[in-house]
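Q: Two folds, back to back.
A: First:
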Amino acid sequence: MTSRPLVIPGEVEEWSEWDKRHGRLCREGSCERVGRRTSQSLDSLEEKLITQQTRTSLDMTTKINFAFLVAILASVATAQESPNPVVSSTPEASPALSMSPEETITASPAPVQTPSALPARSVRVSFVPPPLEGMISLGIYDMTGKLVRVLHQEAQLNEFTIGADAMVTQWNGKNDAGEDLPAAKYRARGYLVGALKVEDVGVAADSPPQDIQGAIVKVKLMPNPLHNDKRSVIDITAGFDGEGSYLKTADGLPLFTVSESPNLARVMVAKDGEKSIQIWEDNGAGLHRFRISNVQKMMAFDCGELELK
């Protein structure tokens, strides 16, 4: 029998082609020999494949390690070239938490405790105005009858707040000097002064009566129908300040401006009939006289007691 060479499939040869050739050799009587050689060749091929796979795995591992090393080196180089510091994840290395001694935060001083201001005091004063055209003067009196505050002087009605059933104003609990008055009960009362007539008589040729100095005249007022009172009688005198002279009650509440003469040294009042009075003004250089008529055109009103807390 003529021997034929064993054909082992190459690494790239199709196994199906090798099977065809192997079957033909077996029919020709070389199958057993081919089988033994094939077994040996398969073992050799398996070892070769294992070796090649191992070598390929090592090559891939080497390439991966090399790429990883290159990436690390690139990161280090970038960090060295970058002007911005890399923020560390640890608190100790964080630049935001580190500061120079000049930047050290110092504790701010405690705020100075100032005494709190006293709460505002406000007392509601209400009244029903008498049925008469004119101006209103309103005062606050203590329980002994002493005038402690001129709340309004010759005020128009529109200077007050219109309440549900009365005219309303407010008192802050202070006297005329701006001082706080003690908590207590007080009383508010006033006068509505009608259309009084002022006549400038001129320079007085005659001297005033001898008993005119510090004189007080009594005036009968119009009755206030809202209070069902009788015709009140009040004591009136004259007063003056840097702006001129005026009529006032004996307890000091201003009622009506007589003149705006400056630099007065004194003023005097005298009775001049039932419905008029006379005022003498002395400025140091001479006397000037005024006659006020219709002095009875006034009505009194009372606001009642007030409680200042």
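A: Second:
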Amino acid sequence: MIFTKLSKTMIISKLQDNYDLQANLFSFVIHFGLFIFMLLSIQWQIKDVYYSEIELWDAMPMQVKPQPVSNKKKSADIKKLTPKAIEKQKQLKINEDAEIKLKKKRKAEKRAKIKKIQREALKQEKLEQFQKKLLDQEKLEQFQKKLLEQEKLETIQKKLLEQEKLDKLKESILDQEFKKEARIAVEGDQEVYAGSNTGELNKFKAMIQQKIYQNVNKQLCGLDLVELEFEIQLMPTGELLGEPKLIQSSKIESCDEALERAILQSQPLPVPKDPKLFARLKKLKLMFQPNAYTE
């Protein structure tokens, strides 16, 4: 036992130190494995030998050529066909031709149908593109319309603000005049009624009427004698405070409008600088007879 162990250890130590021996041993194991594989995989069978027999002839046999079918035989076969058979063949040929024509017709119809579908699809696509353009155009127009409405609204708001400021200014002037009127009303009344300033008041009234008459288009009042009355309120500058108020109409709308325009065009109207006199003139009722007035 000890000897075998020693021999094994010596062999292993030799193998570990000798690389050439390891390579030779590895090569032997590989070749031995391949030899065993060949023995097991290849089938070693003995096959039977086949023999062929040959027949010998003294001379070559004569070849018989096939006789061609004569045209007479063909014509005879055609003559054998009965009129019914001939008619049947004709009908078959007509049917075949009709079937071929029908197939061609169906193919042509199919192509035409495909082309029609393609044309309709193209039209639909163009229609959708046109509708899309119209929709975009409509949206653009709506947007522009909104912008215009916004601008108009802003303009109206500005005008309203300006009008509101003007109204406030007029109200403040009216309040101031009302306060002044309360203070000088008694003195003004006394002076007017006493006749101290009656001539001055009539003078300014006549000047106001004369300036208005100069701007009246008399042709709009006709040839008949008409009479109308307006009430106006004046500011110290001679400008109107508010719009002229029609108290008595001439029954001719164009004449009434002509007189109103003349009053507005005549601004500023002549007014006295004396506050006492102006207090009696700032609210006037003026009677007009356009056709009766001559310069």
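Q: And?
A: The beta strands are 228-233, 245-248, 283-288.
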